Amino acid sequence: MSRQNYIFTSESVSEGHPDKVCDRISDAVLDAFLSEEPEARVACETFATTNRVVIGGEVGLSDRDKLADYMGRIEGIARDCVKDIGYEQDKFHWNTLEVSNYLHEQSAHIAQGVDAAADKDEGAGDQGIMFGYATDETPELMPAPIQYSHAILRRLAEVRKSGQEPSLRPDAKSQISMRYEDGKPVEVTSIVLSTQHASEDQTSDDIRAIVEPHIRDVIPAEWITNNTQWWVNPTGTFVIGGPDGDAGLTGRKIIVDTYGGAAPHGGGAFSGKDPTKVDRSAAYAARYLAKNVVAAGLAERCLIQLSYAIGVAKPLSIYADTFGSSDVDPVALEKAIESVMDLTPRGIREHLQMNRPIYQRTAAYGHFGRAPEADGGFSWEKTDLVEALKKAV
Question: What pTM did the predictor assign?
Fold first, then answer.
């Protein structure tokens, strides 16, 4: 039986964190190509450092003339991302940084495993294992430490961009330590926040005075107690931030992107990858299925693993674990999962309508635990399989 009383910690990083700047640019490139062609192929990686952004990887459109045209738009896409995030520092400014584009056409040897005819099953774009997880400890069916770590930074970004808190800057990290009793979150034992700010004259106490009201707004009041420890900018001054302070790279925050360490991760990053890549689409599908299992009341916690082989359409394995929180036999649950959703790469994309330009918005504050959007964004957060799963088990 798993532990019921413990303290668990998760962290998040803001949209201005160097790695998240890179995730944003990679996903913006992906969205641009999907806007032109829903079946576009993109595997885009970004590197950022002082006054420089470097973009590379593989892209593909059926019309090679349009591909050449889109290559010319990459620099503007990168600058727009950096501008929207809010970087106008001397050594990392959206208008003056140097952008290098090394994107090229997708490898024919990779494409051959994926480019099946329309009337045939499409193979997975790579081998790998993907995990999805859900728990009933928050309304979003996410682990509380990561969900509220994200919420802190999302709120601080909102008040920074609105002008309400003009001395905040884009780069930030948060961390929540949560005490659990009987397997349920009951108290935040510590809150850690490091945020970039405008002036070297601002002290840690000054920054805490700015951010504390916003943090209290997003964390349930009963969870912050007199015992909660606050660590705000514990090292002091944090004026130099973003890629000027530390280099960034796409795909380096995979635990922040998923469940904050509360569940396994298959290892593959998400950002910059089109949905033929099961690293991304199957991880989203696994979350969708796990969330629906919990939303259906079939379990309090659910972990799902899917595995794939390159060029093979159907998953090699489906594994479910409810950690003793369900009366449903895991084997029956695995069969039910397979019966309610086509888990081939094409089946996932069609079921969740993933061939849309909906990915730039996923690049910060988590790919999961978000509200489904009218244009198809975060479709994997819907709970529309509840009745089908109940019937199938």
Answer: 0.94
